[in-house]
Amino acid sequence: MTNSGPVIPHERVEARFQPFQRFKTRAGAPGGDGLGMSVVAAVAEAHSAPVIARPGSEGGLDTTVTFGPPAGARERAGAG
User: Of 7, 8, 39, 53, which residue is least crowded by CB atoms under 10 Å?
Assistant: First the structure.
């Protein structure tokens, strides 16, 4: 996913995954509640899915979460 918010410095990207971390919007005020990316991190961790986040080339944050196959999918695929 990609957003088009203000540029997040590389050294602040990891902080974005902590609850209630809010960054200023283009208008200068903090935006959102600061929970979205901490929820993403918690869901990804629960599914052993890696999260890659980096500052976007035109602002905001580019985030990729890669989920594997559902539990038991390999076993079911071979059972047919």
Answer: 39
Query: Any alpha helices (H) in the chain, and if so which ranges?
Result: 36-46, 73-78
Which residue type, as a one-letter code, is found at position 63? T
Q: What is the pLDDT of residues 59-78, one digit of tens each?
A: 778 889 999 887 777 666 66
Yes or no: say if 61 and 54 are a contact pair by the CB < 8 Å rule. Answer: yes
- Cβ 65 vs Cβ 44: under 8 Å: yes
DSSP one-letter code for 17: G
Rounded Cα–Cα distance for residues 46 and 35 (Å) = 17
CA 62, CA 24: separation in Å to the nearest integer?
17
pTM for the whole thing?
0.63
Token output for 59: 């602002």
